[in-house]
Amino acid sequence: MAALMRGVMIVAIFASFASVAFATAGQATFYTVYTPSSCYGDQDQGTMIAAVSADIFQNKAACGSMYTVTCTSGTNLGVAMPCRGGSVTVKVVDLCPGCSANGFDLSQEAFSVIADPNEGRINIDYVPA
Fold it and tell me: Which residues, if any, are the signal sequence (predicted)?
């Protein structure tokens, strides 16, 4: 039994490394008006949500997709250490037409989990959740 548990632990450890290794780099900003959205119209989808760049959105194919987003650094000199550590999982609800490739426009609540909102724009890594 101990050997089986050890094997499970080793697989779990390597799986966690793989998810970090396959993360995609991008940038994130935040917004505060959540409805209507391109995916759900006037239906409220909560506050852990995001609008994404066209390359991710793919003509609504990404609607409802979940992504885990991690702050990696700030993009300006406004806040010395904007990242708060940890990650946040968000649901895609909208297109962000102003976002560059691999861009996320997070809800203010989601952004605040991973970074100081005074930074405004952060560098991120993201993976499908």
Answer: 1-23
- 5 against 121, higher pLDDT: 121
What distance in Å separates the CA atoms of residue 30 and residue 120, rounded to the nearest whole number? Answer: 7
Whether the per-residue pLDDT at 14 is higher than 70: the answer is no
Task: Please state, in angstroms and rounded to a whole number, the distance separating the CA atoms of residues 90 and 57.
Answer: 14
CA dist 111 and 72 (Å) reads 13
- DSSP-based three-state secondary structure for 48: coil
CA angle 18, 127, 53 (to 5 degrees): 150
| Of 107, 81, 85, 95, residue with least CA distance to 28 | 107
Residue 77 backbone dihedrals phi, psi, to 5 degrees: -95, 10
For position 37, what pLDDT does the model report? 98
Whole-model pTM?
0.83
Provide CB contacts within 8 A for 87, sequence distance 6+: 68, 69, 70, 114
Quickly list H helices, the chain. Answer: 2-21, 54-57, 108-114
Spatial distance between the Cα atoms of 56 and 62, rounded to a whole number of angstroms: 7
